[in-house]
Amino acid sequence: MGARPRDNADAAADALRGGGIVAHPTEAVWGLACDPANERATLRLLALKRRPVDKGLILLAASVAQLDGLVDWGALPPERADEIRRSWPGPNSWVMPATATVPPWIRGVHAGVAVRVTAHAPAAALCRAFGGPVVSTSANRAGAPPPRELEGFDPAVLDGVDSVLEGETGSLARPTTIRDALTGAVLR
User: Fold this and answer.
1) What share of the chain is helix, strand, coil (3-state, %, to 5)?
2) Domain ranges of the chain
3) pLDDT tens track for 21-74
4) What are the residues facing 34 on neighbouring strands?
5) Sheet holding 177-180: strands in order across?
6) Which burial class, exposed, middle or buried, applies to 108 when counting CB atoms under 10 A from its CB (0-12, 13-18, 19+)?
7) Which fold has domain 9-180?
8) How far apart are CA 180 and CA 151, in angstroms?
9) pLDDT tens readout for residues 65-103
10) What pTM, to 2 d.p., does this model score?
């Protein structure tokens, strides 16, 4: 499995634009990405993971500006919004008030949307090459441990992706923290 060819960020972004699923390294584990505006790609990714749509998904961005139009900054107290902006780029995911433009296949049953501005170079390069945020969820079947290395992939999951982004996972021992933007409470 480790011998599978890896694509640079531009080729992986092309796969996303074509409705594909990309395996990519993150701060701690390998993830699966797709175009969040593409319902078919998102539902295909969820089926590959055996994850229900109602749970919602994280959007990964290379900059705060890539989240414009998706999160409602005005729904947060200014000091909370400042705290969130200061936590990025970095391994901090926040469930933010979502705008009406965030599709239900991303939000799930939630009013908010989980977002992160990553400092992990390969993941950030993918978002920059794509030109916006991407869905990013761990590259495992529901209930199984996420792989830290490409060699640790479930073969059925790896066979279901259209592109593998070059790069390695970061040094975090666990997936990123997820917090509620309104309260600051840790959700994961």
Assistant:
1) 30, 20, 45
2) 9-180
3) 999 999 999 999 999 999 999 999 999 999 999 999 999 999 999 999 999 999
4) 135
5) 163-164, 22-25, 30-34, 134-138, 58-61, 112-117, 92-97, 177-180
6) middle
7) DHBP synthase (3.90.870)
8) 33
9) 999 999 999 999 999 999 999 999 999 999 999 999 999
10) 0.95
